[in-house]
Amino acid sequence: QVQLVESGGGLVQAGGSLRLSCAALGRTFSSDTMGWFRQAPGKERVFVARITSSGDTYYADSVKGRFTISRDNAKNSVYLQMNNLKPEDTSVYYCTVWGFNYWGQGTQVTVSS
């Protein structure tokens, strides 16, 4: 059984930083693209960032220059370093694997102004 387990969310003031982690359990995803989506209250889930198996990264324009995605294949994990956070970054952040319908339970990020 595959599980994606996110952690690292919390409450932070605008301008602060958080680091999200996602650990994949049950199978190895070192050959797959992994990444993050987020969903604000009353809004659709939207793309944030992804990283390919070779380490190429892609970002939504809204987070480019502030967020950095990385992965550790030895730990079967993907990370999202979020700097200079803004109130509009407030969302539940979800980890996923491209090509599979696997999603984590989500981790809440709240940025106060």
| Strand order, sheet with most strands | 2-10-9-4-5-6
The count of β-strands is 10
Q: Note the beta-strand portion.
A: over 45%
What is the typical, i.e. mean, pLDDT? 96
H and E string? EEEEEEEEEE
Count of discrete alpha- or pi-helical segments spanning 4 or more residues: 0
Proportion in helices: under 10%
Overall 3D shape: globular
Query: Could you name the ranges where pLDDT drops below 50 across 5 or more consecutive residues?
Result: none
Alpha-carbon Rg, integer: 13 Å
**End-to-end gap:** 40 Å
Description of the molecule:
- With 113 residues, this protein is mainly β.
- It is built from no helices and ten strands.
- Strand 7 and strand 8 form a beta hairpin.
- The model has no long low-confidence stretch (mean pLDDT 96).
Task: Please give a handful of descriptors for the protein shown.
4-stranded antiparallel sheet; 6-stranded mixed sheet; 50% strand; 10 strands; mainly beta; 113 residues
Task: Describe this structure in a few short sentences.
With about 110 residues, this protein is an all-beta fold. It has no helices and ten strands. Strand 5 (about 45-50) and strand 6 form a beta hairpin.
Summarize the topology.
Layout (H helix, E strand, L loop, with lengths): L2 E5 L2 E4 L4 E8 L8 E6 L6 E6 L5 E3 L7 E6 L4 E6 L8 E7 L9 E6 L1
Parallel strand pairs: 2-10
Antiparallel strand pairs: 1-3, 3-8, 4-5, 4-9, 5-6, 7-8, 9-10
